[in-house]
Amino acid sequence: MKFICFFRCSRVLLWIVCTSVFFSCTEFLEKKASSAFALPETLKDLRAMLDNEAQINMFAPSLLEMGTDDIYVRPEVLKARPQAEQLIYSWQQSILRSEIASWNLPYRVIMMSNVIFEALDRGVEGRDAEKNIIRGEALFVRAYAYLALAQLYCNTYDETTSSHDLGLPLRVVSDFNTIYARSSVQETYDLIVSDFKTATEALPESVALPTRPSKAAAYGALARTYLIMGRYDDAKNAAESALAIKNDLLDYNDLDASSNFPFGVFHDEVIYNAYTTQGLLLVASRALIPDDLYASYDEKTVESNCFLINQRMATLFLKEITAEGLLPIFQVSARMNYT
Amino acid sequence: MKLKIIFGFLLFFSVADVIAQRYLKGIVTDIEHEPIEGVRITVGGPEGEVVMSDKDGRFNITVADKEMEVHFFHVGYADKMESIASHPFNEDLHVMLLTKNQEIEEVEVVSTGYQQIPKERVTGSFEGISNADLTKRVSANILDKLEGQVPGLQYDRRRTGSLDINVRGINTMSEGLMGPLIVVDNFPFEGNLQDINPNDVASVTILKDAAAASIWGARAGNGVIVINLKKPMEGRFNIDFSANYTVVEKARLKDVPRISSSDFIDVERMLFENGYFDAAYNSPYAKLTVFSPVIDMLFANRNEALSDVALEENIARLRNIDVRDQLQKYLYRNETLQQYALAVSGGNNINAYRMSVSYNGTEGTKIGDSDQNLSINLQNELKISNKFDLSARLMFLQHIGKSDANPMDYNFSPGGGRGPLYPYAELKNENGENLVVPYVYNHQYIETLAGGELLDWRFVPLDEVSLNTINASRQHIDAQINLNYALTPWLKIDGLYNYQGSRAEDQFLRQQESFYARDLINRFTQINEEGVQHIVPLGAINQMGNQRMQGQKIRGTLRLNKDFLNGEHSINMVTGAELSAMTLNTADYTVFGYDPLLMTNQQVDLRNIYPTFDGLAGNARIPTTEGFLETTRRYVSLFANAAYTWRQKYTASFSARRDASNLFGVNINDKWNPLWSAGLAWSLDREDFLKEVSWVDGLRMRATYGHSGNSGGVATSLPTISYVSGSSANLTSFPRAMVSSLPNPYLKWEDVRMINLALSFDIFKRALSGSVEYFNKKSTDLLSQDNIDPTAGLSSVRRNVGVLRGSGWDLKLAGRASIGNVQSSTTVFLSMVKDVVKEYRGNISNVGTYVANAGGSLRPLPDRQLYPVFALRFEGLDGENGDPQGWRNGEVSKEYQQLLRDSLQHAVYYGTGLPPRHGSLKQSISWKDLSLSFLISYKFGHYFQKPTVRYHALFNSWLGHSDFAHRWQKPGDENFTTVPSMSYPANNIRDDFYAYSEANIEKGDLIRLQDVNLSYRFMRSIGGKKYTFNVFGAVNNVALLWTASESGLDPDYFNIPPSRRYSMGISCKF
């Protein structure tokens, strides 16, 4: 008899234990699986995402420079490169063109900025001023990415045709299940311009490092966009707004001309730094500067020897403008705005 | 007088009592006929009479007529119940008790980690490996000893240094979710299995189907391996000692086919004559390009700094040199392993204990590598009262490893744009001087810097010995307490608590004289008008990593084992709940300017970017490793397992489990996942119609159906980001984060549904036995990377896109025979598995992805097996120029670019790279005390892709293959070779086409003699005590007996095949 009672009691006990275990489970199972993971919920998270320069600043598509006449490559050097690069250099359309980083990396930046917008819309704790800056930065990087993509994959902006020329898929949400069709060139550039404009209002004038966009950067980027669109007066106005904030110039005489890397990464002229590590065809040991481009620079620049190495074989090697083979082809710098 | 009458009455009654009772007497012994003292013998339940056996094992107990059963209990032995219904009561009853270890030795009981089930009651598919089988191969790692011992267990060692085990094929598409769960006694083991003392292992049970494994729930989708440790032993005091020594042949470096030095030099001369090196040799970037001695001499000769005669003499000498000879002589040696183990056990019926200590020491195959393992294991079983049992275990494991991280080994790459080293490199010359080998930089440039303010920048491989050392130490504690309380004899409550904790520390110390330190110091040296400044200070560089793990598990179970109505019905049930938590912490850091003796270091500036010397590496920050990480895994589970047997013939079982875990980012309700199984078993040998057939001893049929899972993906409604520590390659030092996954609310755990049908038989008194099992599995909701539209920002996401279907057979046949003193036992296994992808919604790339490294990775494709082997169609060589030819649009084609990007439908599909049919043959013959055994394993039905010569890589990166010697050289060669002609300039697409064509696919069928073991057992009486000795000699990796591969490569290994191991040893029991 006493066994049955015991049995029942222990059954009840087991259930009590189980249910209490179950309910305390909630807390037990809430512990994060890894200290490195988080949900994007705080300003610190969003700030960290925008500071991830390996993804936000390093997306610049190398395709923009590889097929241009700013550089040339000697035949035996070209033949040693993978087939895909050879086809890019000679502008051939082929299924072997496997280089897709120029398409993927800018879209990754666009996705990150969409995640940031959605996090801000869900509600983030913090001062409004800081939230504004984050929003402004996200708008800047998104528009910058779309600008790069538009130059590569769409027809040039032309007021007469751009409303039916095919543009880019304009992603504005991060959900990967949503499908987007290509918009028109007009819509694409409209988005770019409006994003930069909003950014000029939201961004601060001075920033800790040129990897973070500033007001001057937004104006500079806006100027470049107008230049591409052919709206020269708007471009001039935007450029002047940018230079009004930051217009430092380098004195080439101060630089060490004999070094292989005379410019530092963040030298005074840099307003915003974007770069690439793709497109190894452009590395200094391979790409050479054609004579006519060389001739277009004025003598003083040339004498300073800061840009190029003159070689006995009468070819010109490009000195890397910054560290480790990174090409700052997207530097919004004061110098460029003066031409 | 009155006293006499009373006394007479009493006597009468006692005699009357006696008439209705009888005495039962007998003797209790162990399996070796040694008497066991102190056995508790009871009749009629715990309230009945109890007697103890004496020191001769004899007992004497009164038994009422109606009693049928007598029970024998002793803490060191399995409980035994003897039926005395038909026992004549004036004869001695001889009872033999088996120790709990021995029970498992005969594999009469299977242990799942939750309960022990007698073999005649199981419905699921279990395989047991006994202690005798485990001693056949000498190894420091218990997992090595299981290879080839049971059907259905497959070992994949194709990738160098890695071991993948699978049970009945693959059930997932994610490489990270493969592999069976490994359990030690009752809980999964969180430490390193190589640290466990193999002598502590009594037996191993493999759980192969859903009914067996579903009690382990969401981690058992790939099967479970349960390692059962030895338990405290019998009443007598016992000592067990063993020692063995193993020596391994030197690493078979020359078994990897490489281009000969002579051919390589011919290629270099050809390239030189064609001006291939001219641009690079004279460019300003030549400082960072490595050139070989032959090229240097050719240029020197052209510039008239070296005479023709000297040039040809030197080259002729270099043709005969193979760097692997010197590597083996100076940097490699014979690996040796020593193992010592001592175990002591004893106790009485209240308390039994076992203590074991073991030491393993390995001197590795590369000079400077060594491993030492120490294991101390203390176990105790205490019978606190009739109903209360307590058992405790404390295991302490320590591992200390040292390895020499000299950059020079058989895989060495000199950098500077090259792959492997040129084959005629020399490490030491005839005068015994250690020679320089170019590394990272152009060595002629390095020579120009000698004698300046920089440290010596040369790399001398033989001087680097002991300058780059990795010291790793690891301590692991495993403590467990089991409490068993018997509410009634058939209802027991268990409480188990397990604590595991470990600390690991790794140190990578590079002395200042090492190349790495000198190189780093030199790179950051600033030389200007102010003098010489060392940004990286002089001294050693010490990189430390720490790991701490702590895990606790607690489990409560209720066990019910009751027979009703005289054995007509029996129920076995176990139910309970379990909580487990494990935390892992890691911390890494590096210090510079380190003095290993004083243990002091210097401060460095990690923040600023400095120009490197001569711009060799641009502007950079000092590279460092710094970081912290904590990962936590928590599980909550509820489980139940019940089996009902009717008439001891028919069994039905059911098992269910619900798991939840803390994988991140989701609602608690979605974290639970139920898994279940059901099974039936029929013991035909107990049926009346078979009881008459004397030659059938056992015949059972089983059928099971169930689900187990693979935890891996959890649904998320928000994106997750992960923080990354700053690295010296970054431009800024702000905290940074990246998006690691986008919201994916439809993610689920993987599910494996398995059906198992089995028939096992035992005939002619075990002269012939075996089993046939058929299984059918379907794995659904398999997680896999799924390519998506890259405009979404990620190029792929993990989704439940896959379905795998598999089926197969596990066959086992064993025979025993004896003629006089000679006994033979043979066991043959054959397992057949076919896993085919039924649904795969991921992106299918063009053929180029699948023909590269064919058969080496999972690569799911619809209607194809996993590890698919594809190749491009090959139409021989062009007779005029030796170009390889393919087939496109119905005709022979040399459009290599198009062929590599063609659709997958046009490729040739062979099958799978993982052997679908595999098995082994175990044979042992013994004559008196001498016994010889060997293990042969075989694999059939798979294919592999062999490497070959690639001219583009040969010219650019020095990657050479011996197929070069068989290349097409003149018209007519195409009749007996498929290797294309060398083309200059090289075309890497042409190389790729040939490398990925049918010409390089071979069958992987093989038969291998795995182990041979000769042992001799003898007993001696010394000083009244009996000593049992066992000496043995064994060889492992004996030989590859046969392979279908035409090139003679070993299909089981992508790189260096394993060397033969010779062992000998002795063990002693007393």
UniProtKB/TrEMBL annotation, chain A:
Pfam families: SusD-like_3 (PF14322). Residues 28-227 form the SusD-like N-terminal domain. The keyword Cell membrane does not apply. InterPro entries: SusD-like_N (IPR033985), TPR-like_helical_dom_sf (IPR011990). SUPFAM superfamilies: TPR-like. Keywords: Signal. Transmembrane segments: none annotated. Residues 1-24 form the signal peptide. This is RagB/SusD family nutrient uptake outer membrane protein. It comes from Sphingobacterium phlebotomi.
From TrEMBL, chain B:
The keyword Membrane applies. It is a multi-pass membrane protein. It is found in: Cell outer membrane. InterPro entries: Beta-barrel_TonB_sf (IPR036942), CarboxyPept-like_regulatory (IPR008969), Plug_dom (IPR012910), Plug_dom_sf (IPR037066), TonB-dep_OMP_SusC/RagA (IPR023996), TonB-dep_rcpt-like (IPR039426). The keyword Nucleotide-binding does not apply. Pfam families: Plug. Gene3D superfamilies: Carboxypeptidase-like, regulatory domain, TonB-dependent receptor, beta-barrel domain, TonB-dependent receptor, plug domain. GO terms for cellular component: cell outer membrane. Residues 119-224 form the TonB-dependent receptor plug domain. It comes from the Bacteria. Belongs to the TonB-dependent receptor family. This is SusC/RagA family TonB-linked outer membrane protein. It comes from Sphingobacterium phlebotomi.
